């Protein structure tokens, strides 16, 4: 795989690869004592569509894919909603042995934990993530059902009986019971809509495609979140490749 060179526009002009710009990220060091540090990585068109034809591939590019995969080498766990797992056909999270080696060199497990939020547990065992015996999957749910038998190692973080999933409590349990100090959330829009109003997102990595998708049936990166007022973002860096912009924002609380 050839590393794509990105133009760094901010803070200092220059050129970087995905690996270089993320080197030294040390997200776990930023974690508060009671939960992991949570960063969200999303892609959207210039008019805010988070998918085209239900997929992100049409609005991604090579640099976006490299940043997406490289971010996975910096975290204890990747959190994702069941809708995205199904639509994007999630598989083993870090497939490249060199990336797994980089994780180990950083003191992380070779493979991140896969954390899937689901109400209905409608995930079939042929889903590549569940069919992969290397993958360790934690399902966050209020259901008392189980997934069908599958090759992946699956465990459950369940809400209390007759209660909804409380994502803040679940993140605390991930920290205490699994030692998770850094989480990369890859969406999708409905899961983000639960995390954001609860103040559970620390940073947003946003890839902005040089395209307009229109609005018919389109999802934004945060779907119908009940926010009483806009949440301010602080720009940490801005990169560019083939007209695609890559912003790293901190959320101001
Ligand atoms: N632009 C991007 O970067 C990006 C990233 C990811 C996804 N997408 C796109 O987004 C679309 C999928 O959207 P989506 O909103 O359906 O995805 P999603 O947020 O990944 O999935 C929604 C599902 O996740 C589960 N879920 C969400 N919040 C939960 C909570 N608080 N507690 C328990 N379970 C929870 C529920 O699972 P059950 O259905 O099992 O009940 C819910 O139906 C796809 O087209 C995908 O390509 C775009």
Number of helices: 6
How much is the average pLDDT?
96
- By helix and strand content, what is the structural category? alpha/beta
CATH level-two architecture: 3-Layer(aba) Sandwich
Strand content: 25-35%
- Tally of distinct domains: 1
Largest sheet at a glance? 11 strands, mixed
Q: Portion of residues in helices?
A: 10-25%
Detail the poorly predicted runs.
none
CATH class: Alpha Beta
Name the helix and strand elements from N-terminus to C-terminus, one letter apiece. Answer: EEHEHEHHEEEHEHEEE
Distance from first to last alpha carbon: 39 Å
Description:
This protein is α/β, with parallel strands linked by helices. It has a single domain, classed as Dihydrofolate Reductase, subunit A. The protein has six helices and eleven strands. An eleven-stranded mixed sheet has the order 2-1-10-11-9-3-8-4-5-6-7. A hairpin with a 2-residue loop joins β10 and β11. The radius of gyration is 18 Å and the shape is globular. 38% of the residues are buried. The structure holds NADP nicotinamide-adenine-dinucleotide phosphate. The site of NADP nicotinamide-adenine-dinucleotide phosphate has 33 residues, from β3, β4, α3 and α6.
